[in-house]
Amino acid sequence: MKDALDFAAINQAALAAFLARILPGGKRVGAEIVALNPRRVDRRLGSFKVNRFNGRWCDFVSLVAYLEGVSQGEAARRLARMLGLEIGGRRHG
Fold first, then answer.
1. SS3 for 16?
2. Which of 21, 31, 52, 70 to pair with 89, CA 20 to 30 A apart?
3. Residue 9 to residue 15: CA distance in whole angstroms
4. Could you give the C-alpha distances from 44 to 25, 29, 36, 52, 67, in angstroms and in order?
């Protein structure tokens, strides 16, 4: 039988030692590290957050994409409209 991997221990060690390496340029805001989403071309910090104590993370664009069954791009457009943000030089809202 193969040795069982202790995912919790690995995650805890990674959280403590490598969070800054995994998310370079992130900013500490309270209990969270706010960073650019490494899976898309973000220009500003804000939507991607990782709790620096427990490793839980959130990305609001991904959440909207999942809940509404749309692409990441469409989810971002929908969020921008909801928030009254500019996309391509045009204000939405």
1. helix
2. 70
3. 10
4. 11, 15, 7, 20, 23
- Sheet arrangement for strand 48-51: 27-29, 32-35, 48-51, 57-59
In this prediction, residue 38 carries a pLDDT of: 77
Give the separation between CA 34 and CA 26, rounded to whole angstroms. Answer: 5
Query: How far is 78 from 5, CA to CA, in rounded Å?
Result: 40
Q: Dig out the tokens for 12 from the structure.
A: 């805890």
CB 33 within 8 A of CB 26: yes
Tell me the two tokens of residue 3.
């040795």
Exposed/middle/buried for residue 84 (C-beta within 10 Å: 0-12, 13-18, 19+)? exposed
What is the Cα 42 distance to its own chain's centre? 10
> Which residues does the chain have with pLDDT short of 70?
1-2, 16, 88-93
